[in-house]
Write a structure and sequence with these properties.
Layout (H helix, E strand, L loop, with lengths): L6 E4 L5 H12 L3 E6 L2 H12 L4 E6 L5 H15 L4 E4 L14 H29 L3 E6 L2 H5 L5 H20 L5 E8 L13 H8 L6 H6 L5 H11 L11 E5 L2 E5 L44
Parallel strand pairs: 1-2, 1-4, 2-3, 4-5, 5-6, 6-7
Antiparallel strand pairs: 7-8
Length: about 300
């Protein structure tokens, strides 16, 4: 097992993608700190790991506050003596258009996703640097953070911010041999099951059937387990040279997302005055949002 002797924290791992990550890390030999806001859900997640021969304990606390980050790291160290891996997965949704989004809608999502990632990574890296043996940080992003999505101002801001922090942290932590990467998953979860476009794929997954090839191959849309292998691989010694990257995965597809780069560059001696700027309108504008092809016949919701 590639992670034998390692200790991992996975935030938001009571169910869904987070649970799949925790289970796969345990399958690969890591002792896992499961985290959820519900004791019942957290206990069930731990049972699913221990009944399969893995090792796990639960920490029930909401991600966001520094106190929760401290509690998670303390649980790893007090129970298993060390911390090697952190997966920041915890998240919530409060979708609404900009003009309807409340302060609480915005703050709640930013606090859990963005601040929660920051506080947990900060606490974990303090411990990893003290140990002096390197470490693995895996932060969960989203296609929404890469391209935007209607009705998700708060979520897109948080997920884009996470990838920005990953790039910075990969530089700051390189000397300590702590790698930091973002995973951009596309999978059937509670967050996608309400989208009519994915209804046929969601139904197949719930029935225990294989998803249609259109979803798995053409869209790169799969199950939580399709993502978990990448998370465990990034946590291993095999991924020691991979850091600062945003890697998308889903179904049968894996992708390396580019870092933002200038796509058009022009110069104007003396600088750019108002009357010189019509050139901008001639540039090929970058697209926003996800563009899905029409569903094949028979897969419509």
């Amino acid at each position: 097992m590639s992670l034998e002797g390692k200790v991992a924290i996975v935030t938001g791992s009571g169910r869904g993608l987070g649970l799949a990550y925790a289970q796969e890390l345990a399958r690969q030999g890591a002792a896992v700190i499961v985290n959820d806001v519900s004791q019942e859900i957290a206990d069930a997640a731990v049972e699913s790991i221990t009944s399969a021969g893995g090792t796990a304990i639960a920490v029930v606390a909401p991600v966001g506050p520094t106190e929760t980050a401290q509690k998670l790291v303390a649980a790893a160290v007090d129970t298993f003596g060390r911390l090697d891996i952190l997966v920041t997965n915890a998240g919530v949704l409060r979708d609404s258009t900009l003009w309807k989004m409340t302060d609480d809608d915005f703050d709640t999502v930013i606090n859990v996703h963005l601040r929660g990632t920051f506080t947990c990574v900060r606490e974990a890296t303090v411990r990893m640097r003290e140990q002096g043996e390197g470490g693995r940080i895996i932060c969960i992003g989203s296609p929404t953070g890469q391209r935007g999505n209607f009705g998700q101002t708060n979520y897109s801001a948080a997920k884009a911010g996470i990838v920005g922090m990953v790039r910075t942290w990969s530089m700051e932590l390189a000397k300590a041999e702590i790698t930091v990467n973002a995973v951009i998953p596309v999978a059937a979860t509670a967050m996608t099951e309400t989208v009519p476009y994915f209804a046929a794929a969601i139904a197949a997954d719930k029935n225990g059937d294989a998803m249609p090839a259109f979803f798995r191959h053409d869209l790169g849309f799969g199950t939580s387990n399709d993502v978990a292998g990448l998370v465990a691989w990034l946590a291993s010694d095999d991924a020691a040279t991979v850091t600062g990257q945003a890697i998308g995965i889903g179904g049968d597809r894996i992708q390396l997302w580019s870092h933002p780069e200038a796509v058009e560059t022009e110069y104007h001696e003396g600088g750019w005055a108002y009357d010189d700027l019509d050139v901008v309108a001639s540039w090929p504008m970058q697209t926003v949002g996800e563009k899905f092809p029409p569903l094949p016949e028979g897969l419509q919701a």
